[in-house]
Amino acid sequence: MTVRPLAEPDRAGWVPLWEDYNSFYRHRAEPEVTELTFTRLCAGEEMFGLVAEHDGRVAGFAHCLLHPSTWTTASYCYLEDLFVDRGARGTDLGTALIEAVSTEANARGAVRVYWHTQEYNGAARSLYDQVARRTSFIKYER
Which domains are delineated in the chain? Predict the structure, then answer.
């Protein structure tokens, strides 16, 4: 298992995972959104992407955004997307991706990594309960 930065040669392996991830959340990303997202993640500036390789193929990803905070002089890292291919689940790829995100965020000066998930996402929540602390925040949006 290897976790490394997302790069242009990963496109063919990343796109099907991205589509499966969006499908899980009952969303369809328009082609121009997929293209822009991939480009931004590969550029690795305000956003960065990591991929996990398993058995010689891209089998998971983590997408992150770095942003300032009003509560500290340092930045925070929002882990917006985390996905592992069904065939690679149970291999610790999810844990490896979260650890790699934390390492990269720290190297970029972020003092916190945070994320959220759907209440019904029991498999992911089981992992998250092992590697992080659940907070009391409730999400609102307009």
Answer: 2-131 (3.40.630.30)
